[in-house]
Amino acid sequence: MKVFLNGQLVDKKDAVVSVFDHGLLYGDGVFEGTRVYNGNIAFLGEHIDRLLDSAKVIALDIGMTKQELIDATVDTCRANGIENGYIRHVVTRGSGTLGLNPYLCEKASVIIIADNIKLYPQEMYDNGMKIITAGTMRNMPEALNPKVKSLNYLNNIMAKIEAINSGVMECLLLNPQGYVAEASGDNVFVVKGNKLITPPTWCGALDGITRSKVMQLGRELGLDVVEQVMTRYEIWTADEAFLTGTAAEVIAVVELDKRSIGTGTPGPVTHKLVDAYRKLVVEDGIRIDF
Ligand code: PMP
Questions:
Q1: Were both Cys, which of 39, 62, 171, 196 would link to 218 (CB 3.0–4.6 Å)?
Q2: Active-site positions?
C-alpha cells in the first residue's frame, strides 16, 4: 500500500509522523472521510472544501491548494488500485514542542490514505439499527464547533463507548440544552408525514455532506425538507428515522431508547432515499482515470 505523506507517495511502512506531532500530542488537526464508488470519488470537491474550512477555523495552513489536494487524492487511489473504498485525509499541525503553542510547529503533516471499509454488518442495513441516547453531551459550538471536523473526537468516542457498552453500535447525542444534535459519527433525520426533518447544525451537528445530499434528494422526491430544532420526542414519535454519513451512507434507525420507531422496520421513505443515494454516489464526484 502507498500512502500520500507530505507531497509524496510512500510505502505504508515509511508513512510515519513524529511523536512530537501535535496531531498526536493534542488532537491538533483536521480530517475528512470520503468514499470511492466504481472509480468515482464521491463529492470530493465538497470534502476538500470542508477540510480547508476546518483548517481555516483552527488557523492551520495546509500548504496545498484545493486542486493539489484533489490531484493527490486521485493519485493515491490510482496508486493503490482503489476503485471502491474509503479515503482518509488527515492534516495535523505537524511536529512541535511538548508545549501547546501551535506556532512552534514546523509545518502541517498532510496524509492521504486510500483503503477498504466495512462499517456496519449487512443485517443492520436490512433491518435497521437500534440506538440509545448517550449521557455524554455533544460539544457546544461555542467551545469546539462540531462543524469543524477536527482530530479531537473524544466527545464522540465517549458517546460511542456508552453505545457499545449498552449493546448497540450507535447513539444519539443531545446538546447542552437537551436538543438533538447528531449521532456519534452520523447525522440524524426523521420522517413525519410528508416532512423530512433534521436538526440545524447550530444545535451541534457536523454539516454532513451526506446530510446535504439527502436533503436535496428528499426535495427531488417531493418531501418537505426542513431543518428544525428537535427533542427525542420527535424521534420516538416519528414515522421513520435514519442516520446519514459517508461511511454509513443512509441507514434506518428502528429503535431509540427501547421505543420502536414507526413500524420498527426500515420505512418506505428511507428505502427510497437509500436507493437515490446509491445512484448519486456513482455520478457526482471526480473520476479516477486508471
Ligand atoms: N457527524 C459526525 C460527528 C461525523 O463524524 C460524520 C462523518 N462520519 C458525520 C456527521 C457525517 O458527515 P458526512 O456525511 O460528511 O460523512
A1: 196
A2: 149
